[in-house]
């Protein structure tokens, strides 16, 4: 396990687990955390042996309780500008990663914590978790993609209600709204995420990556253009040795041996 001051990284069998570890402030994100998170992700992105990333929070109470309020209180306008664009940049890097990223939401995911989770591909929550975008309650509003990713996930009406009221929601409500994929017992969260990661690892890495690209990019454009994008990504995958291996393994009733090429 590697540990910076605020971010821990552990790699086991193609799965990297990133833990944001500032439990004394409920893992709140400041510029130092953003730097460490980005540096850690840059290292993972260039490691071809890693295909799935799990992001979680340190301690017993929080995933990420938001941006560091005390730090934001001290910021000048110029510093605030740097902070909002920096946060957007890091979260966009996570969203566009060539890895599959799973948020293991182990506690409070508020403000920037919900925004971090929204930038991940899949969100699995502990039964003890709470989510919300309460920025308007303290004179701000979501600036790390919260107003944009949430509306694409749940629609304008629900997004406006959650943002305008700043209310926290239970994981049960988050599941009903489609914000989280699954809710699991707290003590089973990481094991569930690891099992999910292993099921992704069993599949063709190129097929998974091209599917991620098609979903991410296609959801932002018209259906006709998205279908063209889907076909182009499908043909990239169709040209690979893994496609031949996958079809052959199915016909021969054996387990596929994907090589990522």
CATH architecture of the largest domain: Alpha-Beta Complex
User: Structural class per helix/strand content?
Assistant: alpha/beta
Mean pLDDT: 93
- How are the strands of the largest sheet arranged? 1-2-3-4-6-8-11
Shape: globular
Helix content: 40-55%
In the predicted model, the low-confidence regions spanning at least 5 consecutive residues are none
How would you characterize the overall build of this protein?
- With 261 residues, the chain is α/β, with parallel strands linked by helices.
- It has two domains: 2-201, 2-enoyl-CoA Hydratase, Chain A, domain 1, CATH 3.90.226; 205-251, Lyase 2-enoyl-coa Hydratase, Chain  A, domain 2.
- 49% of the residues lie in helices and 18% in strands.
- It has helices at 31-45, 69-74, 77-95, 112-119, 146-154, 156-165, 171-177, 189-201, 205-218, 223-238, 241-251; strands at 2-3, 7-12, 15-20, 52-57, 62-64, 100-105, 108-110, 122-126, 130-132, 168-170, 182-184.
- It has a seven-stranded mixed beta sheet with strand order 1-2-3-4-6-8-11, sandwiched between helices. The chain has a four-stranded mixed beta sheet with strand order 5-7-9-10.
- Helix 3 (77-95) packs parallel to helix 4 (112-119), helix 5 (146-154) crosses helix 6 (156-165) and helix 9 runs antiparallel to helix 10 (223-238).
- The chain is globular, with a radius of gyration of 19 Å.
- 38% of the residues are buried.
């Amino acid at each position: 396990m590697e540990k910076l001051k605020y971010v821990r990284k552990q790699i086991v069998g193609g799965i990297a687990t990133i833990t944001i570890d500032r439990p004394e402030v409920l893992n709140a994100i400041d510029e130092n955390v953003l730097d460490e998170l980005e540096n850690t992700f840059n290292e993972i992105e260039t490691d071809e042996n890693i295909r799935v990333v799990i992001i979680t929070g340190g301690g017993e109470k929080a995933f990420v309780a938001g941006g560091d309020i005390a730090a934001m209180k001290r910021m000048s306008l110029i510093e605030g500008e740097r902070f909002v664009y920096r946060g957007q940049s890091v979260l966009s890097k996570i969203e566009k990663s060539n890895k599959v990223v799973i948020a293991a939401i182990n506690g409070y995911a508020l403000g920037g914590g919900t925004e971090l989770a929204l930038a991940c591909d899949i969100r699995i929550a502990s039964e003890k978790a709470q989510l919300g975008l309460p920025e308007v309650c303290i004179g701000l509003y979501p600036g790390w993609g919260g107003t944009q990713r949430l509306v694409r996930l749940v629609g304008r009406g629900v997004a406006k209600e959650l943002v305008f009221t700043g209310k926290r929601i239970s994981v049960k409500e988050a599941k009903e709204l489609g914000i989280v994929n699954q809710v699991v017992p707290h003590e089973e969260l990481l094991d569930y995420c690891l099992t999910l990661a292993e099921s992704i690892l069993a599949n063709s890495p190129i097929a998974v990556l091209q599917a991620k690209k098609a979903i991410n990019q296609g959801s932002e454009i018209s259906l006709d253009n998205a279908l063209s994008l889907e076909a182009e990504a499908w043909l990239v995958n169709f040209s690979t040795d893994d496609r031949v291996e996958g079809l052959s393994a199915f016909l021969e009733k054996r387990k596929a041996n994907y090589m990522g090429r």
